[in-house]
UniProtKB/TrEMBL annotation:
Chain residue ranges for the region called Disordered: 321-348
Origin species: Gandjariella thermophila
Coiled coil: none
Annotated TM spans: none
Cross-referenced InterPro entries: Nitroreductase-like (IPR000415), Nitroreductase/BluB (IPR050627)
One function term, GO molecular function aspect: oxidoreductase activity
NCBIfam families (alphabetical): Rv3131_FMN_oxido
Domain of life according to the entry: Bacteria
Leader sequence segment: none
Annotated protein name in UniProt: NAD(P)H nitroreductase
Length: 348
């Protein structure tokens, strides 16, 4: 009996949190395998948005986000994780091997971040017209740096205008592409009872705020809080970057995305990833030329960050987007071992 080997019960508990990670169009393009006490992360190419994301950037960022969510969940359960990224060069979809190590001293230390996993939503509504403090933005930058990425906040009005123009260009180019239009329609406007995609209940009827356009989904039924309508949008824009554009850098950018979103949620901020401008080669090049000319940085994603609008008591919050069950994304841990305690260790 190996008391230091993670078991199926702990794996299920950790993945139940991990699968809440954000993903492009809520496609959840990942699969997990559990064998010999280790977890293996694979890209699920059946869920790859080949028109919207021809380079697979969004797919790798999504998988990086679920990988970081798993690390957070394991730590809260008392397990440290050694991660081997891109372990099999001849098998490009094998993205990571996670080796959990029993660390009782970690148990309960990540409760804030696991609570943030449960509370986090992609908030596509308008934010309150109130600036995010520079100290908080710097803290989010430190969180990104710990995951080998950089968060470049865009606070200069001229830089923001440049960024808004690039986002608008990307939106226009994608709207002219029928394959992207059909792909977006397939994954949005979903009705209750589905396990993936973007439901209409999570999309506002208004999808443009001042100078910034959001991706246009087919159907929107989410009402704007009255305070946001009266005050206008106060979102801060930030660009998540990496030093290179390798597959490893994209995966690490996804981990950084997860870390930043959870830290922002824990601080009370709302957030919304914007990926259109990095999905197109020309607009991604413009981002580098106009906003990052003096930096050896590759833009991986844009984030809207801000204070959520006050919602009157009794109003419905943003509902969670649907998720596939752990059993649908995991192979090799279908049964719970006999004789386990709440920490996932085997009992003698």
């Amino acid at each position: 009996m190996n008391l230091d080997r993670v078991n199926a019960r702990t794996v299920h508990a950790a993945l139940a949190l991990a699968v809440r990670a954000p993903s492009v169009h809520n496609t959840q393009p990942w699969r997990w395998r559990f064998r010999d006490g280790t977890l293996h992360l694979y890209a699920d190419r059946a869920r790859w948005l080949t028109a919207t994301d021809p380079e697979g950037r969004d797919l790798l960022l999504s998988c990086g986000a679920v990988l970081h969510h798993l690390r957070v969940a394991l730590a809260a359960l008392g397990w440290a994780a050694t991660v081997h990224r891109l372990p099999t060069p001849v098998e490009p979809d094998h993205l990571a091997v996670v080796e959990p190590h029993r660390r009782p001293d970690l148990a309960g230390t990540g409760t804030q971040m696991t609570a943030a996993i449960v509370r986090r939503r992609t908030d596509r509504r308008s934010f309150v017209d109130r600036a995010v403090p520079a100290t908080l933005l710097n803290q989010l930058g430190e969180v990104a740096a710990a995951e080998q990425a950089r968060l470049v906040t865009v606070t200069d009005p001229a830089d923001r205008a440049e960024l808004a123009d690039v986002i608008a260009r990307a939106e226009l180019l994608q709207e002219r592409n029928l394959d992207i239009w059909y792909e977006t329609a397939r994954w949005s406007g979903k009705r209750p009872g589905t396990s993936d995609g973007v439901p209409a209940a999570n999309v506002p009827t208004e999808q443009r705020y001042g100078d910034v356009a959001l991706r246009r989904f087919t159907t929107g039924a989410l009402a704007q809080p009255q305070t946001a309508i009266l005050e206008g949008d106060g979102a801060t824009l930030a660009v998540l970057t990496t030093a290179s554009d390798s597959r490893l850098s994209r995966l690490r950018a996804g981990e950084a995305l997860s870390a930043v979103l959870l830290a922002a949620t824990d601080a009370g901020l709302a957030s919304c990833p914007l990926s259109q401008a990095v999905e197109i080669v020309d607009t991604r090049r413009l981002l580098r030329q106009r906003l990052l000319p003096r930096e050896a940085a590759v833009p991986q994603l844009i984030l809207r960050l801000g204070w959520p609008a006050w919602v009157p008591e009794g109003s419905l919050p943003i509902p969670p987007t649907p998720r596939r069950a752990v059993e649908d994304v995991l192979d090799g841990a279908s049964a719970e071992p006999c004789g386990t305690d709440s920490t996932g260790m085997e009992r003698s």
